[in-house]
Each structure stands twice: as structure tokens, then as C-alpha cells.
Sequence to fold (174 residues):
Amino acid sequence: MAYDYRGDAVLGRVLAYWEERRGGRRMPARRDLDPADLPSVLPHLQLIDVVPPDRFRYRLVGTALVDAFGHDYTGRFVDELLLGTGRAELITRVFTTVRDRARPVFLQARYFSIKNIDFMTNRIYLPLSENDSEVNMMLAAFSFDFGARRPPHGVWASAQLDAVQSALEVIEPA
Fold:
């Protein structure tokens, strides 16, 4: 995977913040994070609850993500969203990897929309834990690459995942 997520203005900032807040622990807790520390990237963030045994709920969805998706999915479970072929499976696999490995995951995914727009999402998912052992929440950050086009509202909701040109990487903390 060739994308420099550490150099990305959104992903790199959030990953550095997570690493700073975790200190010597495996991962920080939600209480260690202060949204006031990240004002420029708040629109690009999600908080995801891990709901045992195997469900994931969007606790917070930033405004840039709401705009790209076309509606606010805060409070919804992944399996409640109509995401199209392969999308729910991919995101569930990513969330399960973060939960089970207690490590950050970078995901780069290519999409093709019915509006004839080809674009990439670059995402980082970061584990959070109240006991430094079990992941109970995730912090996620997104950046989109639409090329030179200005994407229409809601383009991401109807887009089809190109699984062949999508990849994930487990990140070993610095």
C-alpha cells in the first residue's frame, strides 16, 4: 500500500494525537480524548461503539462524512445501513480486526458511484479501551480523494466498492 497516511493532513494528525494520548499504554480511553484538541479535523471523524458480541454502532459521525454519505447515520449499527455489495462485510472485517488485535488499521478503498465518479477513501481506525485490554470504542478519521471533481452531496451512499483496489493494513504503533 503506497498511501502516506502519516503525511495526510487529517489521518496523520489524528494518528499522532492518538499516539500522544495513549502514552505508554496499548491504547487510550475515550476520556483521554478532547474534541477541542482537534477542531480542524472534527468534520472528518467518527466514534464507533463496540457492542458485544459482534455489532458496531456509530456514536458520532462528522459533518464531512454526513455530506459525503448524504444523511446522518449517527446511532445506527453497520448492519442497519444499506451499503451495497461488499461494503458492510468490509467495514465489519475492519472493525473486527481493530477490536480483536487492539491495533490501529488503515483502510484505503476505491469506489465507483452511479453518478460516474471514481474516488478513494483513506481511513484510519484507532482502538480505545477503558481498561487498556478490551476495545470498547474506536476513533476513525477519513480523507477523500475525488480528483479534480467537486463531489455531489451523498455520492458515497450509492457508490459501489471496488474490493480489488481496496486494502487494509494493521499499523504497529510508533
Observations:
- Residues 87-101 form the longest helix (15 residues).
- The beta strands are 45-51, 55-61, 105-112, 118-128, 137-145, 160-170.
